[in-house]
Design brief:
Layout: H1 12-17, H2 22-34, H3 40-46, H4 51-63, H5 89-97, H6 102-111, H7 118-127, E1 164-168, H8 177-183, H9 185-191, H10 202-214, H11 230-235, H12 244-252, H13 256-270, E2 281-289, E3 299-302, E4 307-319, E5 324-329, H14 340-350, E6 360-362, H15 369-378, E7 382-385, H16 390-398, E8 405-406, E9 420-428, E10 431-439, E11 447-451, H17 458-467, H18 469-481, H19 495-514, H20 524-532, E12 536-540, E13 544-549, H21 555-560, E14 577-582
Parallel strand pairs: 2-6, 6-7, 13-14
Antiparallel strand pairs: 1-12, 2-4, 3-4, 4-5, 7-11, 8-9, 9-10, 10-11, 12-13
């Protein structure tokens, strides 16, 4: 087609004979075939189609309705403008004269149940000749709401027991107060020489840090969501809970010697109780994955990910009777692993009048053969695994059937209760040890136990090592509930101090669970879910603090314990008594 300079069509027929778009070309070709009676070949040739392609085009036109849509259909809508909002036009004009923005008006209409869009309001204002409002400061806006309330700084001097009442989401924390009073936690902080200040003394700082571990807060930066909860602050004996910046700075003021003294004072409190008999102790390493870029973090094998990666290597000791952690150390460098068991022995002797543990149970990678010889020289009984190498596996296979004897395990609820055992004496690092080959324990390869206990029966040795798996369960529980692996946090809490808090929190949970019927063997996450995660209404007076728990399905278990009968005087509350009770509507 020909178009002149004035954009007028100079040859109208060419518009139909020379289509400019594919859809128009299809339309003109089909019209020539169906209406004008041209043959298929002529119509195809006239409009640039091959005969086969044109036959397909005709078939689609006959059978597919969508193939007949050549023209744009415009729907008939409302006339231009916003006439459906005419009844509120005058109100919108009146609101603008009061400096209401389109968003203010939209919110006002929404509160009244009227659907008036921002676009409609803007169109009405434009038609009425109103210009957009100039940008305003937040405080100049109508209905301005301030941002998050700024909490005051934590200061024990501002702590008050004036009469008041409030509701807290952290009511379950007060269930630990009787045990904390009995163990005299502020005294532990002083004995450990922990840092403190006039604003936040050492005992209150320790209580604040411990509260986050007891409440299973994954990352310490999450304390900011509870900064305004008065119950959390009251638990620590402060006006408000310290912020995340304090937690990070405080933990880095503590050195390994402070953590050791804290763990020692804690262990002395537990010594002789039913919670920690120290008859037998499980030892293990655990790698805490690290996702940052700190240059001094070394690579260790992370079992949960089956690979070596940057991580913090932690050493943990667990009382086998109660499954409570009693020692931790996250200040271990590569090459120091084999010596860590002897550091633990030094720590144990210092806080148990020079006595050594009665039994240690650990796996083959905890120390070296030379370390086993040193333990034997010190007179420390132990049970460990020996690594399976080709020579020992060949030795097991070469044993005749008559060399094995069957042992029946007692008090073991497992499928494989009748393993076969072969026992011999071996010499390692010039020390004589007892070695047991064990088959039919449910493993493809034989288990090889190594011990310096000469008189204990094979059945007791096998049963005891099988119980060592409890430390794996405790580690799994600590990883999930106490968040051992949560190192990538906005609050750089020192890992060694965080593990010391884990030791204390696990002990407090076990003491609490032992008082609850049916929960003696429950893991911490179940105890928290059923019994601790409770909101409460707190009534404060200068002499008594009443904590009234709201109704929950498991509240009768708490009521059946002797916990509610205690009314301890709490030192960090200026001697005020704690009274636990149920909420009365």
């Amino acid at each position: 087609m020909t178009i002149g300079d004035d954009n007028k069509l100079t040859d109208p027929a060419s518009f139909f004979l020379e289509p400019s778009s594919p859809r128009q070309r299809q339309y003109e070709a089909l019209r020539a075939f169906f209406v004008e009676g041209l043959s298929s070949e002529k119509a195809a040739r006239a409009f640039g189609y091959s005969p086969g392609a044109f036959r397909v085009l005709c078939s689609n036109f006959r059978n597919d309705p969508q193939a007949r849509e050549f023209f744009l259909v415009t729907s008939i809508g409302r006339p231009h403008g916003v006439r459906h909002h005419e009844p509120i036009r005058e109100e919108i004009v009146a609101l603008r004269k009061k400096n209401y923005s389109v968003y203010d008006m939209n919110q006002l209409f929404a509160e009244r149940g009227q659907k008036v869009t921002i676009a409609a309001i803007r169109d009405i204002l434009r038609e009425e000749g109103f210009a957009p409002l100039p940008r305003r400061l937040d405080e100049e806006r109508l209905g301005y709401h301030s941002g998050p309330a700024v909490q005051p700084a934590a200061d024990v001097r501002s702590f008050s027991l004036e009469k008041r009442e409030f509701t807290t989401q952290c009511g379950g924390l007060f269930l630990f107060v009787p045990d904390l009073v009995r163990l005299n936690l502020p005294e532990l902080a002083i004995a450990a020489g922990l840092a403190g200040s006039k604003l936040i003394p050492a005992g209150h700082a320790l209580l604040s840090s411990l509260a986050l571990k007891l409440w299973s807060i994954e990352r310490k930066s999450h304390v900011m969501s509870l900064a305004a909860d008065p119950g959390l602050a009251l638990f620590a004996g402060l006006n408000v809970i310290p912020k995340k910046s304090f937690l990070s700075e405080y933990s880095h003021r503590l050195e390994r010697r402070h953590t050791l003294r804290l763990l020692g004072a804690w262990q002395e409190k537990l010594a002789g109780s039913e919670l920690a008999t120290f008859e037998s102790i499980n030892l293990d390493f655990h790698s805490l994955p690290y996702a940052g870029e700190h240059p001094t973090v070394e690579k260790h094998f992370v079992a949960m990910r089956s690979r070596r990666q940057p991580s913090i290597l932690a050493f943990l000791a667990q009382d086998a009777t109660s499954n409570v952690f009693c020692y931790s150390n996250a200040d271990i460098r590569k090459g120091e692993e084999a010596e860590e068991v002897f550091r633990f022995l030094d720590f144990f002797k210092e806080h148990h009048a020079g006595a050594l543990p009665r039994e240690l149970v650990f796996d083959s990678k905890l120390t070296t053969y030379a370390g086993l010889a040193r333990l034997d020289s010190l007179g420390v009984p132990f049970i460990t695994l020996r690594r399976r190498d080709k020579r020992r596996l060949a030795e097991v296979k070469a044993l005749p059937a008559s060399a094995w004897r069957v042992v029946t395990l007692d008090h073991v609820s497992r499928k494989f209760r009748t393993p076969r055992v072969f026992e011999q004496t071996v010499t390692i690092a010039k020390h004589s040890f007892r070695q047991l080959f064990i088959e039919d324990l449910g493993h493809e390869e034989p288990t090889i136990l190594l011990t310096n206990q000469k008189t204990k029966s094979a059945k007791r040795l096998i049963t005891r090592y099988a119980q060592r798996m409890l430390i794996e369960n405790a580690l799994s529980d600590a990883v999930r509930f106490f968040h051992m692996n949560a190192l990538s946090s906005a609050v750089a809490l020192k890992v060694d101090f965080d593990l010391a808090l884990l030791v204390m929190a696990s002990g407090l949970y076990r003491r609490f669970a032992n008082r609850m019927r049916g929960y003696a063997d429950a893991q911490a996450r179940q105890i928290f879910r059923d019994l601790v995660d409770l909101p409460a209404t707190v009534k404060v007076t200068p002499s008594q603090i009443h904590v009234s728990f709201h109704r929950r399905a498991h509240l009768p278990i708490l009521l059946a314990s002797d916990l509610f009968s205690e009314t301890p005087a709490v030192p960090w509350w200026n001697g005020a008594q704690l009274v636990l009770e149920t909420y009365k509507c």
